[in-house]
């Protein structure tokens, strides 16, 4: 196949003529950026066990600590501690890009050597600057001795025979072992209401699901600790549909009973393995006929698998109600809309689309696969807050070319999947950071402006992809299955173009993007008519979990922002709680002044939301709506955004519609019904706290669950509880008449002052006095009052750590250099004072959780990679020497902690809220801490932190692990 294509292309004398867009001629992309060495040490926070360690890895200085940690642990190949281990991002990117470039040359994609070099440099530039990323299997496998698997998404097939069913188990197992996920439709298997040829009764698909579920639960995906990801689909007219619908809901009842009996039923718990059907997402494939019957309240026929005759009729509304009731109880099943899916199918002459991958974004032929790549949308937002649509389109052209080239050398888990993929060449380009982009542009996620912008971008992406696909078809030929499907493929292209024509633009920005999209679709029709198309599919919207972290994205896939406040890991160790950087950018875009922005950001830092933020107009609240919290998006807000983008995607969208715990079954019915009417291909819902087998972060989870159980069962019994009210009165611990004190003189940004601190007999800080300004001045009076307030608070038991976390990182003048070698840079006098108090009175362990180190400790870290004291610390940090020679290193580390890079590479100040005290480990846990409500997500099996939703999967911010297939 490769030789034939290459020979044909060369015989034509054709090939892509490429121009540089991103890279600079004569300068390699690596030489245009600054590189630095880092240490990656990863621990399980519950056990304290070091699960990974690699020191001296090389990354660009603008890559976050989190991005470099995840790439090092997930994607670097070779045994740790050996010379074979990769240690630089350059090695990783070169391993992939050079493999792609060589395959492009061998298969005749480029007009000449100069074009091949441009392709290599452009792809390298886009990757190293975090403009896009391939899906994880590419980083795992390409350029290694392992099979060159590039696909993350697979669809299998099973027929009504024991050989086929057992082969299903086998193929699924190998896909799970390789770190990917698979989906399939079980509707060909006879129901338990039909007879076998021997005269007996068939087992039915649900019984065979048990064996597949046990297999998936046993095989760890990719040799990792997370379990396999899979999707099981059943047609709505299958006679066993009601049994299928209730499988997981009945198991949820079992979980409740076992939990109440004292068994460990948390996800990953010792006893959860006794529960069935937990390793798959279940979806019902519904038809327009069924949905119309639901609307009309008529009966619907269930059909025998062999003959197609109706063997039973059911009330359509009753069955729809059971589907929604089961989803209310356990979030399964979701719905897939069969007629909509197949109406947008480019290859109907080959076969129908019957299933999807586990995350529901890839929908294509049975026994097929799809490789994915996602662009970081925020990278294309210019300094003037306009979206660079032309640059975005150029990036899409390079990326879609690379994705198609990968099929030329890729390996596949089964022969059938390999043949279908090579013959139809399905691709899945998509994007991440849509939520962050809209916020930065001042557009609400659930607004007409937000949806029109998202629709225009999605249309431009897919239109440009198919345009390049048609151009490639003129060079290396159309996909093998194109000839028999040509009319259908061109019909779907016209449907995409027609959908683009009816997009209603609302402002200059979406108008500019839409204009380019319109031209792209015109070129698709014209060039496709002449050349055909290289790819049967071009685009999907995937969860972008791990690769989203690789690109330092704030939001994943099509999702809105999860929370307005998150954690940032620091280069020197520890982490900082910060307000998302898109928020101040959005506020400035809307005309707020610097002082107003600072006040609003400070409010968000404390409360986690914008409601009642000082100076923020109520009409601007919607711009800062998030997936969870006080201003969480309404369920239909999610549905409407999906509906805006769906007409411009070859596949579908991985996304879950979130509903509050108080949502009713009727509301779920409405979401499913409106999703069908709005033209979605698939819908999944999740009602908060609907599943028992999820570890919650607070003790209130069980009580909330029990309350929901009581409401669901319509129990008439009311339990009355008597709660004893306990009043806590703090006691003041006064200082002794004679106590040890310490006086420190300091200079911050040229302003001089003195601080005197007194301690109890046990060494605990008990009072602080500050001398600033002239005696009798307003400043001196304010400092006296502040000193008294802090001192009384300390004596009444307020921990010093609390004061430190609240007052460090406050920013106001005077600020800048100090004369203290331990704190070389300070953002304000308050920032300096409480850093100094922390160093004087907190233990090393307490300070390390706050990210505060002495000059000696920072110097030790530079020399040995560890802040830990060489001898056991028995007192405060002040007892350790702090030589002035360390001041330069200290200043560098301080500067690293308070500066970051914005999306365009320029220096920008962080907007810190407070330094974490170790109580929270991820943004999900930070959200719980700020709001007092639980995030219904599992704990990461690798590092023990709480994961957060990403599409219809979960992703861990600590180590990058995902619960899905990508």
How would you describe this structure to a colleague?
- It is an enzyme of class 1 (oxidoreductase).
- Residues 40-130 form the Ribonucleotide reductase class II vitamin B12-dependent N-terminal domain.
- The protein is α/β, with parallel strands linked by helices and 966 residues long.
- Among the domains are: 157-343, Alpha-Beta Barrel (Anaerobic Ribonucleotide-triphosphate Reductase Large Chain), CATH 3.20.70; 741-915, no CATH class.
- The chain contains 30 helices and 26 strands.
- The protein is globular.
Beginning-to-end CA distance, first to last residue: 28 Å
Q: In the CATH scheme, what's the topology name of one domain?
A: Anaerobic Ribonucleotide-triphosphate Reductase Large Chain
Annotation field: number of helices: 30
What's the CATH class label of one domain? Alpha Beta
Give the fraction of residues assigned to helices: 40-55%
**What average pLDDT do the residues reach?**
84
Task: Compute the number of strand runs.
Answer: 26
What class, by secondary structure content? alpha/beta
In what range is the share of β-strand residues?
5-15%
CATH architecture of one domain: Alpha-Beta Barrel
**Radius of gyration, rounded?**
30 Å
Describe the global form.
Answer: globular
- Main beta sheet strand tally, sense and closure: 10 strands, mixed
Low-confidence stretches: 1-12, 221-226, 694-728, 871-920
